[in-house]
Design a protein that fits this description.
The chain is an alpha/beta fold. Among the domains are: 145 residues, 3-Layer(aba) Sandwich (Alpha-D-Glucose-1,6-Bisphosphate, Chain A, domain 3); 89 residues, 2-Layer Sandwich (TATA-Binding Protein), CATH 3.30.310.50. A hairpin with a 5-residue loop joins β20 and β21. 38% of the residues lie in helices and 23% in strands. It has 16 helices and 21 strands.
């Protein structure tokens, strides 16, 4: 197969393309790219099928090429690998995970020396080395005995940092009941342990290792959250925090079973940083993220950057500019004074912290925000779309874009990642293609769910009328 890195790593079906041999080949290509004196890598892995074995193989190949390896002593969330790179000033890292993909997948995420997702320059170079050179490796036992491989604890350093980042004195006084849906991912137990010395009662669900993730994809979107919706309808909890399989993404569920998407989470945390913590900085959002963020940034006169979809674009700005918060609609959000990386566990605790600061429930906070900035309903669908139609669709949208959508004039078109049609009331429709699959993604945001659904149908009609 052609091994290609997507927006955040290489992912493939276990035993079909994600094989021991291919993992070794990719690891050799990584070693070839990072080849040099004094190179040290951290290697982590999640709870997916055979992840610990794949991590061992990666470590053996890196060590066989003279790269020092810090191998995690247990399965860990992805943010722990990135934080270890920053704390130890490492050359980079590898995380074995397929994140939110279906259970049949596993993957390799490359983390660079700047403690976040490797950029295209790195991944393209790694791809160019795939299969070029013989795979060099030594046994894990030999690596450990020689000292080139060290088995290390990544968890304690992470817990120490997070407890210093959040307002522990405030949280120790808060009396909240929080449900944490781990989705059978490696975020299991972290929020509970961080808040163990507070009066906040943490109850977990879908905890423990299950490589099949209870029969759903470990992605915190509504179709996978029926269990937590039902639990929240019982009214026992103030909020539910949901993390994906490797715990770098977030969504939340409100009392009564209402879904809080990542754009809403980011908007609330932006307000928390500005109004409660008195922090300053610019804001980054991807083109498919909510208009609510734009309105908040405008009110507080914050510089706003908009990027194509993909956290790597946000990461670059976080490295180069003073960024307060940056995020994408899929649940990846980075925050100031940390690493230029996503961390769904920290974000969940920050939502709890906001409730503690304001002494308000999440529904009251949301209501006040909507009253001031307006209400936005976000929808997205992914449809199979043949490769032979992709070019035709993009050419059509370029040369014959709709002037109106449901009788509403289009006031602006953005075309740096698919096509975004912005209407006079700031509602919008996006049509963009997956770069790795025959998939068309259609996004919409409007003042009501019904209207957002109609925008999606409008987009579908354009796409599937193309001959």
């Amino acid at each position: 197969m052609a091994i290609k890195f997507g927006t955040d790593g290489w992912r493939a079906i276990i035993s079909e393309d994600f094989t021991f041999e291919n993992v070794r080949i990719v690891s050799q290509a990584v070693a070839d790219h990072f080849n040099g004196v004094g190179v040290t890598f951290v290697v982590g892995y999640d709870w997916r099928f055979l992840s610990e074995k794949y991590a061992e193989l990666v470590s053996e190949v890196l060590a066989g090429n003279g790269i020092k390896v810090l191998l995690s002593d247990k399965a860990v969330p992805t943010p722990l690998v990135s934080l270890a790179i920053k704390n130890n000033r490492l050359s980079g890292g590898i995380m074995i995970t397929a994140s939110h993909n279906p259970p049949s997948y596993n993957g390799i995420k490359i983390k660079a020396s700047y403690a976040s997702t490797a950029d295209e320059g790195i991944t393209e170079s790694v791809e160019s080395y795939i299969g070029k050179n013989k795979v060099n490796h030594i046994s894990l036992k030999e690596g450990i005995s020689s000292g080139i491989v060290k088995v290390v604890d990544l968890k304690s350093g992470y817990l120490k940092f997070i407890t210093s980042y959040i307002d522990m004195p405030l949280l120790k006084k808060a009396k909240l009941k929080v449900l944490v849906d781990c989705m059978h991912g490696v975020g299991d137990g972290y929020i509970k342990e961080i808040l163990k010395d507070t009066k906040i009662k943490i109850t977990q669900m879908r905890s423990g290792r299950d490589p099949l993730f209870g029969g759903v994809n470990p992605e915190p979107i509504p179709k996978n959250l029926e269990a937590v919706f039902q639990e929240m309808k019982k009214g026992k909890y103030d909020i539910a925090i949901v993390n994906d399989g490797d715990a770098d993404r977030i969504s939340a569920v409100t009392p009564g079973g209402g879904y809080m998407n990542a754009g809403q989470v980011m908007a609330l945390l932006l307000l928390h940083f500005i109004e409660d913590k008195k922090w300053k900085g610019a804001v980054v959002k991807t083109v498919s993220n909510t208009t609510l963020i734009e309105r908040i940034a405008k009110k507080y006169n914050l510089k706003l950057y908009e990027t194509p979809v993909g956290f790597k674009y946000i990461c670059r700005l976080m490295l180069d500019e003073d960024i307060l918060i940056g995020g994408e609609e899929s649940g990846g959000i980075g925050v100031k004074n940390y690493i230029p990386e996503r961390d769904g566990m920290l974000l969940g605790i920050l939502l709890i912290e906001m409730m503690a600061y304001r002494k308000k429930g999440i529904l009251d906070i949301m209501a006040s925000v909507e009253k001031e900035y307006g209400k936005f309903h976000y929808k997205r669908i992914d449809k199979f779309y043949p490769d032979d139609k992709k070019k035709k669709l993009m050419e059509f949208l370029k040369t014959s874009p709709p002037e109106q959508i449901l009788n509403k004039p289009v006031k602006e078109i953005k075309s740096y990642d698919g096509y975004k049609f912005i209407l006079e009331d700031d509602s919008w429709l996006i049509m963009r293609l997956s770069g790795t699959e025959p998939i068309l993604r259609i996004y919409a945001e409007a003042s009501s769910e019904d209207l957002a659904e109609k925008y999606l149908e409008f987009g579908k009609k354009i796409a599937f009328d193309i001959k």
